[in-house]
Design a protein that fits this description.
The complex is a heterodimer of chains A (312) and B (864). Helices cover 37% and strands 18% of the residues of chain A. Chain A contains four helices and eight strands; from the N terminus they run ααββββββββαα. Helices cover 23% and strands 16% of the residues of chain B. Chain B is elongated and about 150 Å long. The chains are: A alpha+beta (312), B alpha+beta (864). At the A-B interface, helix 2, strand 4, strand 7 and strand 8 of A face helix 20 and helix 21 of B.
Chain lengths: 312, 864
């Protein structure tokens, strides 16, 4: 799929070969490297492409994404802090998607995250998301937060380590509430008892893996239920349903056109690199093209991630 | 004879029902079609006989005696009454009335002679502890003119010579001591004129002087919510008379204040004329007035409301000589509808569904909520389908429906027969020339088809409707109706173009239309074939698909008219006439008040200067004509009249216990735990079965129902089919309008089915045959989206299960704190999420190795 990411390096081999031919005076000549041809050439190119694409995405999900998440949290924290202080923070029922709505602190996990509105895969890149048809955390009713377990800062990775009785502190526009964890719930476990009147329920939803690579294979949904006895009033008028893409483990198919655009941009970048290489020196092209291509690859991968399940 | 054996079976089964039906046999009261199971003439609830005589003192002090009348008054029901219930009061042996008014109710009934005054009063004659003494001051009238005589000249002050009155009552002003001042009653005390006040004492103790309209209780205001119930009824030349008297509870009339704790009475006073004391010499004008014997001959009418002789008019009912002639019918009221909400703090368990059960539920619910060992039963009325859906998705413990509903969930549902009742086409129709109310109305399916398809024109406004310009204006001008019901007025009224019906979905409509479509004539009419008089179906309804649970409003004809108001408010004319409502109860009340729901009144609102459309006024007594779809429970409770519906061609059947039983005997049992079905084709072969017979079922899930709810539903079915089937007006008893379900006889099959379902629901073990697919009892990843994970009773749980549902709104609803068995968390997983990262890493690794391989393994040989 992601052709462009790999075109730059693969093209290099034949180009170098061409370049060495006519103009390369100073270097002590080593034995000329005959270019690969035939099956080995194709195999080598394909393998290079595979490696670059896989590793790039892998690195972006685990490392670059982490960076992205940290930066977003930093900005969101500032924004939410200002809004709470100036009493403009949202209290529901309808909040624009992507706006910060709450701050969640879990002391047992040393976790502090700003929660944004919306649970689509793209929304969860910046931090935990609030399911839009539920009340905000701390308000009377059941609130659902989803967070990623393995990628993009993996905010909810340690969630399964919570014990009944642990506390979860939530700051929303109306104030602070401390929830007590009822327990971790996996497939097949009974749902918690019906919520009593006047109680705020919080459900943290994420995914977990199994076996030795548990941290890298978040395939099964897992929930943590928590309750606070004293709830804020919840405004009426929440949406009755949310789109398919905001359900647990759902992905956003709607980004395919955007992805196609990004890929086209990468192809264009590649063509530009090729044509630039025919006029300018390799160093210059490297210097100019690398940041552009890396940025494009980054953006493209970010879009690609939105096609993946939202809590992985 | 067709159906001979079936009819014989029906007769045998009917006889098997025993004495109840014999009692209910309608041959006793003369009006053979009265669907009046409770009007058993052999033992009326109240009966009393008195001898009434008028006595006038002559100038010499001797007494002149008028003929004595031995009057017997009976009432058919006196206990556990509910607000607006109508009871039948009949009398015989009374003096024939004269000067009959067209409308006997309230003030308009005053201009009559020798009528029978019937009123509702607070208190009883011999009060016990906590009861009030009955007196004229506690009797309700809707106007002050019915109780007070204000500023009368001497010739109109006959009461001042009442033989039985004490001296103070013979004074120039009397009734309230001291008399209210001129600020309250400016016209009461004017020298030279006589005044008699009969103040009204409200239940709160407040005294209303009743000297003018603003000194009356609020319920007596002009244009009050309810029309006057008290009346001055007419006695015919044989000395007999009969009325349906509507009682009012403190819900309708707080000032009168009758309820289950306050003793009340109905007072019946046959007016025989004032008895007079010794006249002065020469006799004064009032002495002469007291001796008058009436201007109208017995049996005559007084439609112009001319003056009558006061001494024999209903205005003097409070005078001592008339008051002593009263018949006091003590009545008691049942618990008010909100009794359970007040007396039982427990959370109610809602049963959702058909309104046919409303009157039974009213009497049943106290029998549940007032007992600690039972639950708090609550009947929430809604369409059968909505109730069933609510029950299926866990919103309600059980549904009350009258036919098999489409199941959307996976849990098997059992239908327990709970009550046998039905619908009726209620009517209020006056015979022309004040000859009283019509007591038999015959209706064919085709007439109903004509009404439901809006095929009558209503008025000249409808003539412009394309395709049906020659149709009759209304049913009273339809030759088919006239032939069946001769002797009625043919003067057109818009309301005669419609049958007031339900706007929402209901099994009642489904059965009504099923009855219609089984009639070939009705079917052809809807298909577009004109009837033999040339009437055609409204083109907008041609080919309407029936039976259906809902009658659509399909007409789109907006008449063109020069009327400014209608030009300002263009509307579909036939829909304004039809104006269906959402509950059967509203139709019953419209019939009770003879207030059609026709919305064609168009007038200028003086305050805003705008034209507005609204409901037409109440019909005037004597020319009432209205048809409405009602429940049999309401028919009996409110004393409505029910039309005879055609069963076999030419055979018209009124609802009664025997005709309901005959229809039940035609019902075919369904599959195990499924409802019985009444085939209208079979009804068409019977001359006794009532086509509107319906069975109300308690439908509940036989699996995955919360155990506590399951126990409640099973208890309800068992109690409702045993002690709930004892006929009577009391708590927990079965009101009139329902056929009791019994272990034996024609309802044996229904009874047995109810017990089976009660067991199946109570133990949550459905009969094996009803299980659709034993392999899929629990929910898993493969559960189909429309089979929600059953969340019992508390639709409260949260969203994770919802997350896999396309439309999962998590409505957090509170529930009680008892531990509840909760369903398991559904599996949500993603292979992509589970495998992607390792695969990416593996892919990267393999790619790198391959590159390295080609570089270091493939190249060297080439170099060499």
């Amino acid at each position: 799929m992601t052709l462009p990411g790999r075109t730059a390096p693969t093209r290099r081999a034949p180009k170098q070969a061409k370049a060495t031919g006519p103009a390369r005076p100073p270097k002590p000549p080593r034995a000329p490297r005959p270019p690969l041809t035939g099956t080995p050439a194709v195999t080598s190119s394909a393998a290079t492409m595979l490696a670059v694409v896989c590793l790039w995405v892998f690195v972006q999900l685990l490392l670059l994404g982490d960076l992205e998440h940290e930066r977003a949290q930093d900005l969101l924290y500032g924004q939410f802090r200002t809004e709470v202080a100036s009493a403009t923070a949202p209290v529901g029922p309808v909040v624009p998607v992507g706006d910060p709505v709450a701050l969640v602190r879990i002391p047992a996990l040393d976790l502090e995250e700003v929660v944004v509105e919306g649970t689509a895969s793209g929304d969860l890149r910046v931090g935990p998301g609030h399911q839009r048809n539920t009340v905000l955390p701390g308000q009377e009713g059941t609130s659902v937060l989803m967070g990623r377990a393995a990628t993009y800062g993996r905010p909810f990775a340690g969630l399964t380590g919570l014990e009944p009785g642990d506390t979860i502190e939530v700051v929303v526009a109306q104030g602070t509430r401390t929830f007590t964890v009822l327990g971790v719930r996996r497939t097949g476990d009974p749902l918690p008892q019906p919520r009593e009147a006047g109680v705020a329920r919080l459900v943290l939803a994420t995914a977990e893996g199994q076996g030795r690579l548990a941290g890298l294979t978040p395939g099964e949904a897992v929930y943590v239920d928590a309750e606070a006895d004293d709830a804020f009033p919840a405004p009426a008028g929440r949406p009755a349903a949310i789109p398919e893409s905001e359900q647990l483990m759902a992905s956003e198919a709607s980004v395919l056109p955007l992805l196609a655009t990004c890929l086209a941009a990468l192809v264009l970048a590649t063509l530009l690199v090729i044509s630039a290489r025919q006029r300018w020196s390799a160093v210059l092209v490297w210097l100019l093209a690398s940041p552009v291509v890396i940025a494009l690859a980054w953006v493209t991968t970010d879009v690609l991630v939105r096609l993946l399940p939202n809590v992985m | 004879m067709r159906g001979g054996t079936r009819r014989a079976t029906a007769v045998a089964l009917v006889l098997g029902l025993g004495s109840v039906l014999v009692l209910a046999g309608s041959s006793s009261t003369g009006s053979a079609v009265e669907p009046d199971a409770r009007a058993s003439a052999s033992a009326p609830a109240y009966s009393e006989t008195k001898t009434l005589q008028r006595v006038v003192t002559k100038a010499d002090g001797s007494l002149q005696e008028f003929p004595a009348y031995t009057v017997t008054v009976t009432a058919d029901q006196t206990t556990d009454l509910r607000g607006r219930q109508r009871i039948r009061i009949a009398w015989k042996g009374a003096q024939p009335s004269g000067g009959r008014a067209s409308n006997p109710f309230g003030e308009s009934g005053l201009a009559q002679e020798y009528p029978v005054v019937i009123m509702q009063c607070r208190g009883v004659d011999d009060p016990g502890r906590g009861e009030e003494q009955l007196r004229p001051e506690t009797c309700w009238t809707a106007s002050f003119a019915q109780r007070s005589q204000i500023t009368r000249s001497d010739g109109e002050a006959a009461w001042r010579h009442d033989l039985d009155a004490d001296e103070t009552a013979k004074g120039r002003v009397s009734g309230l001591d001291p008399l209210p001042g001129a600020d309250v009653c400016p016209t009461a005390d004017i020298a030279g004129y006589s005044t008699r006040l009969t103040p009204f004492v409200a239940a709160s103790g407040r005294v209303f002087p009743a000297c003018q309209a603003d000194q009356m209780p609020p319920e007596a205001a002009v244009g009050a919510a309810f029309p006057a119930a008290e009346l001055a009824a007419f006695t015919d030349l044989d000395g007999r008379g009969e009325v349906q008297f509507e009682v009012r509870s403190d819900v309708e009339n707080e000032s009168l204040g009758c309820n289950h704790e306050t003793a009340c009475s109905i007072v019946v006073i046959p007016i025989v004329g004032l008895s007079c004391d010794q006249p002065s010499s020469p006799p004064t004008a009032s002495d002469n007035a007291c001796r008058r014997t009436g201007r109208f001959v017995p049996g005559s009418g007084n439609f112009a409301s001319e003056g009558v002789d006061q001494a024999v008019s209903p205005t003097v009912w409070w005078s001592a000589s008339q008051w002593r002639n009263r018949f006091t019918i003590p009545i008691t009221f049942g618990l008010p509808p909100d009794a359970c909400d007040i007396l039982d703090p427990r959370a109610p368990t809602g049963f959702y569904g058909t309104e046919l059960l409303a009157q039974a539920a009213l009497q049943w619910s106290p029998a549940y909520c007032l007992r600690k060992d039972r639950f708090k039963f609550q009947h929430n009325q809604m369409s059968d389908e909505a109730g069933f859906t609510l029950m299926e998705n866990g919103g309600g413990a059980a549904a009350l429906v009258s036919s098999e509903q489409t199941r959307v969930g996976t849990d098997p549902v059992g239908y327990a027969p709970t009550a046998v009742t039905g619908f009726a086409i209620g009517y209020v129709v006056d015979k022309p020339d004040n000859a009283g109310e019509l007591s038999t109305l015959r209706i064919t399916p085709r007439l109903v088809a004509k009404l439901l398809t809006q095929s009558y024109l209503g008025s000249d406004l409808g003539r412009g409707h394309p395709g049906m310009a020659d149709n009759p204006l209304s049913i009273m001008q339809d030759p088919e109706f006239v032939r069946l019901n001769p002797g009625l007025s043919r003067i057109n009224q818009e309301v005669g173009a419609t049958l007031l019906s339900l706007s929402n979905q209901s099994d009642v409509i489904r059965q009504l239309t099923d009855w219609v479509t089984h009639d070939p004539a009705a079917r052809k009419f809807i298909a577009g074939e004109p009837d033999q008089w040339g009437m055609v179906v409204n083109p907008n309804y041609e080919g309407l698909a029936l039976p259906a649970a809902e009658i659509p409003l399909l007409d789109d004809f907006v008449p063109e008219t020069g009327n400014t108001c209608r030009q300002e408010n263009p509307a579909v004319y036939f829909n304004q006439i039809a104006a269906p409502v959402t509950t059967l109860r509203r139709i019953s009340e419209a019939l009770l008040d003879a207030h059609p729901n026709v919305q064609t009144r168009c007038e200028l609102d003086a305050d805003t200067g705008l034209y507005k459309v609204g409901r037409i006024g109440r019909q005037s007594y004597g020319s009432r004509f209205m048809l409405g779809l009602v429940s049999l429970g309401d028919v009996e409770r409110y004393g409505l009249k029910a039309a005879a519906l055609q069963a076999a061609p030419g055979k018209f059947v009124v609802p009664s216990e025997s005709s309901l039983a005959a229809a039940v005997s035609l019902m075919e049992p369904g599959e195990e735990t499924l409802p019985f079905t009444l085939d209208q084709a079979a009804v068409r072969t019977s001359s006794k079965a009532y086509p509107g017979t319906m069975v109300v079922y308690t439908a509940a899930r036989m699996q995955n129902l919360d155990p506590a709810d399951a126990a409640k539903v099973a208890q309800f079915i068992r109690v409702a089919t045993s002690e709930g089937q004892r006929p009577g007006p009391g708590n927990g008893q079965l009101p009139a309008g329902y056929l009791p379900l019994r272990r034996t006889g024609v309802t044996a099959g229904l009874y047995a089915a109810a017990q089976d379902v009660a067991t199946a629901v109570g133990t949550q073990t459905p009969p094996a045959s009803t299980l659709p697919d034993p392999g899929q009892p629990t929910t898993g990843p493969g559960t189909s989206p429309e089979a929600p994970t059953t969340v019992p009773d508390a639709p409260a749980v949260e969203e994770p299960p919802v997350a896999e549902e396309p439309t999962g709104a998590p409505p957090p609803v509170e529930e009680d704190t008892a531990p509840v068995a909760m369903p398991a968390t559904t599996a949500i997983s993603s292979r992509t999420a589970g495998l992607l990262l390792p695969l990416l890493f593996l892919g990267g690794l393999l790619g790198s190795l391959a590159v390295a391989g080609t570089r270091f393994l493939v190249r060297p040989p080439r170099q060499g």
